[in-house]
Amino acid sequence: MDRYDIAIIGAGAAGLSVAAIGAAFGLKVVLIERGAMGGDCLNYGCVPSKAMLAAGHAAAAARDAGRFGVRTGPVTVDWAAMRAHVRGAIAAIAPNDSIARFQGMGVEVIQAAAHFTAPDEIEAGTRRLRFRRCVIAAGSAAVVPDLPGLSGLPFLTNETLFELESPPEHLLILGGGPIGIEMAQAHARLGCAVTVIEAAESIMGREDPEAVAALRTALARDGVAFIEGVAATGAEPDGEGVALLLADGSRIAGSHLLLALGRAPRLAGLDLPAAGVEASKRGVAVGRDLRSRSNRRIWASGDIADPAGIGPRAFTHVASQHAGIIVQSMFFRLPARLSYAALPRVTYCDPELAQIGLTEAEARAEGRCAEVLRWPLGENDRAVAEGIEAGIVKLVVDARARLVGATVLAPRAGDWAGIFGLMIARGHKLSALAQLVLPYPSLPEAAKRAAGEYYGPRLLRPAIKRLVAWLMRLP
User: What is the pLDDT averaged over residues 36-41?
Assistant: First the structure.
């Protein structure tokens, strides 16, 4: 039986990060992956979706060029060339996640399914491996609902969507979360009819309603149709396509159906009871140090981890954050404690919707919202110069003028996240943003103007005016 310092199940973002760090420390590391290296993010998620979005954004920009005095003529989409662009993006990044690269680091890579046979043993293919420490990083998969009539019908998930050889005539998207919304805009801009069906009262239900309202308007302008507040109760064939039956008695038919109802951890087949690892449908039960609460040899990282008190987060950048926690907890035995207080999340449509830290509603629920500051993007000089109308910056501050949350609806809003994340993580007051010198003209100046809304009224109080008048009399 082969013995390893660290065994890692899953070669997605989480597993690759831990494997690279472990190998750098000179540990004997084995990485087990049953599918493609790079996992969901590279092959079926972040990379292909953003590549398709880029194509959609380019098509929209060409159609809209006339308002700048640029004449392009009718815009057509070459679907095969678009797919080649998507595949090219994956191929360009793939070497970073390849078997050869990790073998070069000193990591042994086994391409096989893995399951536990004991608290310190794994079976991978025909091999049995014993480990000192293990990281479960098997990721997550798209939720497939138990919808009457769905079984046997053709449907798409993020794992099959990018394989379509021709554009869908009418794409039905069941679920109005980030994945559904991104793919709705991408396909609409590429010339497809798109309808989003969301059971909740609003798409993007976790996000700030003010920003979501503006985003919905932008998506509708692209041609996306919405059915909100109505659940799907069944599915049935419709010619060569599929139809959804809705709770209000209506029926909607489309050529294709994309399921975008969230993610579920890939727990099946791991045989966690054999390792004495507690888990639920949310994922592997771990503490804030990402260590299993029932087997101290095992950690969990990425989408499959369910940290006590804060729950799972299905983001690639969370996997990188987890790797840092595991370095502290597993490698150095330091009292690491995971926090999502400054965690950013971004929906990469146009305009992008970025949330860093708490939304206004979340802050109010926690009693941490003393004031909300807003600045419309339409009053930003760079936005005016580029003809950008939709957008807003909202800053949520506590009673000590510290930033606890930021909502940004703007082009490339995700690129602003670092500023707000740093402020929240370090407990900086709003004055740090108000005093920040930013290049002119730039879109992030809108955030500085929002911060200025906090100090402006306070500086113009009668007492301050009297003080300034007195100081001006001094020689």
Answer: 94
